[in-house]
Amino acid sequence: MSIPTNLQMVDLKGQYLKIKPEVDAAIQEVIDQTAFIKGKQVGQFERELATFLGVKHVIGCANGTDALQLALMALGLKPGDEVIAPDFTFIATVEVVALLGLKPVLVDVNLDDFTISVDAFRKAITPITKAIIPVHLFGQCANMEAIIDIANEHGIAVVEDVAQATGATYYFSNGESAKAGTMGTIGCTSFFPSKNLGCFGDGGALFTNDDRLAEEIRSIANHGMRIRYHHDSIGVNSRLDTIQAAILSIKLKHLDAYNLARQEAAMLYDSLFRECKKIIVPQRVNWSNHIFHQYTLRLVDIERKHLIEKLKEKGIPAMVYYPIPLHKQKAFEPYVDSDTAKEYPNSIMLSEIVLSLPIHTELTQEVQHYIAENVLSLL
Question: pTM for this one?
Fold first, then answer.
C-alpha cells in the first residue's frame, strides 16, 4: 500500500471543499448584507437547529465554554453551591464552575464508556448540591435516564455538556428517544471547527425547553438586557456571529451524513482491531448511539508514548484525550482533598491507557487500513 500523505486527526479542508460553493455563497451573503452581528442568519440557524434537535429554544453564543457559564448563571446558583462533574473530561466543563465561585465536585467515570458514573454521582450529592454536568464524551451519551431520575429526586439541575455529541440520540427504556442536549434542564454545545458540527472559528449554543430559562439566557448573554439599555442583571457579552451562523446552517444540512460517515469509519476500525488482545475498541452502550467525535481505544500492556512516537514516524497522528485527570490538575487543588486517588480509579486508569486515532468525514478505507496495519505492527 502506498503511504498516505498529510494524515490528520480531522480533515477540515477536505470537508470544506465538498461544500465550498454553498459555504462561500453563505459567507458572501453576510458580507453583502454587512450585518455581522445579530444578522438574520443567527436566528435562522437557531430555529433550524431547534427543529433538528426537537427542542423549543436554541440560543447561540460565542463558544462552548461560554455556553456552560451562561447555563450556570441562568440557574441562579450562589457562591459555594456544589456542582458535580466528571473527573475525566476537558477542563472547560469544570473551569466555569470555579470561575463563578461555585464548588466543583469531581466524580469518577465508567471505565468502559468514559461517561460519568451514576453511582459516583449519587454518592457525591450533599444538601448544597445544585447541579450536575454530565458530559457526553467522545460522541456517546451518558446514562441520562438514571441521571435525570436521581437529579429530580434531589432537586438538582442537569446541564448537559454535548460539545462532543451534537446529533447523538438517546433511547429511553420506555421506547422514547431524544437528541443529546435536550433531556436535561439546559444543554450546552461548542461549534469549535473540529466538532461534528463545527464552524470556521469559535461558536457555541445552549438548548432548553424552559421558556423562562431561555429568556434569562438571552438576557445574560446580552449584557443583562431584555430591553435596550435596560440592564436587569449582571450579564456578559457572548454572541454567535453572523458568518459563523451562516456556515453552520449549511453544515447542519449535512450533519446526519457526517455522523454516519464517522460511524462507518468506526465500524471498519472495529473490524480491523477485533482480533487484537492488546486493544479494546470503543464500547457502545445500549441507551445511546455513538457519533464518534473521537475514536478512542484502550490499550492493554502497551507503552503508549513509544507507540505514539512510532506512529508519528509513519506519518500517523494519534492523540491522548485526556492525559491528566482534573483532580490532578494544579488549578483544582483547592477543591480536592490530598488523599483522593481512591475515588477516581477509572479516571486515573483511562488517563494512562486511552489513545485516539484519526476519525473524520473524509477518512478513506485505504487510510484506515494503513493506520490499523501500522498500529498492529507496533504492538
Answer: 0.96
